[in-house]
């Protein structure tokens, strides 16, 4: 299992930071329309509050760099910095979901980064040498043809009640590279290039 257990403390609040300006998200949406796609932009349509101050500060630095690039007609740098700020902002959403699942449901699974555009199945191989024999086979939840446990679907519903609706849901099936034998599927939420595990099968 690529998971670790955490102590469930009922009275411990979910980590958060004070609400901050939506300036970063506004910049992502309007500074360079070609740098952010509509499917990602919809994640912010109901407003946005940062979960991690460190993420916010890093995103602000890239937005500021994008503004400089815009002032100096550095189009390529403008797009790259806006995209980087977007990636950090999406990571913040994934970090929040991971923290909620850890605190409220006592589960911490993998957080995978896959920067290529996806519309169908894909494979992620871990860089961790301890698990080099394994790979994760991702499939959209509506294309997964095996039974998903009730507990996993209940987690999905719980997060959506909290307003933590992702871009898409995927099932990540951990398999041995040599035999492709299924070992331990997990349910994951997608936020741009970030895929955060929200439930396991066992």
Summarize the structure.
The chain is an alpha+beta fold. It is built from five helices and six strands, in the order ααααβββαβββ. It folds into two domains: 23-105, no CATH class; 111-200, no CATH class.
Instruction: Give the biggest sheet.
Output: 6 strands, antiparallel
> Radius of gyration from the CA trace?
18 Å
**Oligomerization status of the protein chains:** single chain
Low-confidence stretches: 1-22, 31-35
Helix content: 25-40%
Overall structural domain count: 2
Proportion of β residues?
Answer: 15-25%
Beta-strand segment tally: 6
Helical/strand content category: alpha+beta
Our measurement of the CA-to-CA distance between the termini, rounded to an integer number of angstroms, reads 10 Å
Strands side by side in the biggest sheet: 1-6-5-4-3-2
Secondary-structure map:
Layout: H1 23-30, H2 38-41, H3 53-71, H4 75-105, E1 111-113, E2 122-125, E3 134-140, H5 150-161, E4 168-176, E5 182-191, E6 194-200
Antiparallel strand pairs: 1-6, 2-3, 3-4, 4-5, 5-6
